Amino acid sequence: MLTKRIIPCLDIKDGRTVKGVNFVELRDAGDPVQLGRIYAEQGADELVFLDITATVEKRKTLVELVTKVAQTVNIPFTVGGGISSVDDVKALLQAGADKISVNSSAVKNPDIIDEMAAEFGSQCIVVAIDTKNLDGVDFVHTHGGRKPTIKVTQEWAKEVMERGAGEILLTSMDHDGTKAGFANDITSEISSALSIPVIASGGAGNMQHFRDVFTAGKADAALAASIFHFKEIPIPALKAYLKKEGVPIRI
């Protein structure tokens, strides 16, 4: 059985790590280079670095910052934000990223997933899906969660897999920053329907939430931000708990 992964997320705005609730009310959480190094030392399995306003502000991810973060960590490292072309991917991989994450640009032009997967391999391509439940239907949102689309989340997840995505980063906007637990229902639904890994994001508040998303939610990995940034849950303690609970985890 494959081990489950714990992934701290560095949401970047203006070169700093930030964290909000339901994608708004952002507050400073520290220096991303320093945080990345600390998490790698603590035993995080991977890191995700998302320049959360890159698409909104119509600029590219901060390649220099990516280079600095990559130089300080020895674990797989995914980068997203404002990526819309094969050239963008090439620049970020050359800067030190192991994988890239696309969201808004993939919704706007789904063919970009096929192109990126063909050029760099599916293992490099993560498609991030920000989902919100509206009147009982899960819809994809773009531009940092600011723009709703008419795409149904479950259908879009299947399409991106078929186009060559190697992994999906599924963020529940309804759960994001609430610390009330992950969106286990939709995570389980998508994980069960797809043959590629699903990273669950949004809602982590305690150690049991991680256990639940790995068992009930059937997630392959769990991503969190504020509970790690503000030292509410140490990664070594979380992994020890999960191992005790029978969750396959790398210590």
Give me the count of strands: 12
The CATH architecture can be given as Alpha-Beta Barrel
Name the beta content range.
25-35%
> How many domains, as an integer?
1
The number of helical elements comes to: 10
Reported for the largest beta sheet, the result is: 8 strands, parallel, barrel
CATH classification class: Alpha Beta
- The ordered string of helix (H) and strand (E) elements is EEEHEHEHEHHEEEHEHEHEHH
Q: How is the CATH topology named?
A: TIM Barrel
Termini separation:
15 Å
What is the SS-derived class?
A: alpha/beta
CATH-assigned homologous superfamily: Aldolase class I
Q: What spatial form do the alpha-carbon principal axes imply?
A: globular
Helix content: 25-40%
Description:
The protein is an alpha/beta fold. It has ten helices and twelve strands. α1 (32-42) packs parallel to α2. The mean pLDDT is 89.
Short descriptors:
251 residues, alpha/beta, TIM Barrel, 8-stranded parallel β-barrel, 10 helices, 12 strands, 28% strand, globular
Produce the secondary structure layout.
Elements lengths: L4 E9 L2 E6 L2 E7 L1 H11 L4 E5 L11 H10 L4 E4 L5 H10 L3 E4 L1 H5 L2 H10 L4 E10 L2 E6 L4 E6 H11 L3 E6 L11 H10 L4 E4 L5 H9 L5 E4 L1 H4 L5 H10 L7
Parallel strand pairs: 1-4, 1-12, 4-5, 5-6, 6-7, 7-10, 10-11, 11-12
Antiparallel strand pairs: 1-2, 2-3, 7-8, 8-9
Helix pairs in contact: 1-2
Short overview:
The mean pLDDT is 89. Helices cover 36% and strands 28% of the residues. It has helices at 32-42, 63-72, 86-95, 104-108, 111-120, 153-163, 184-193, 207-215, 226-229, 235-244, and strands at 5-13, 16-21, 24-30, 47-51, 77-80, 99-102, 125-134, 137-142, 147-152, 167-172, 198-201, 221-224.
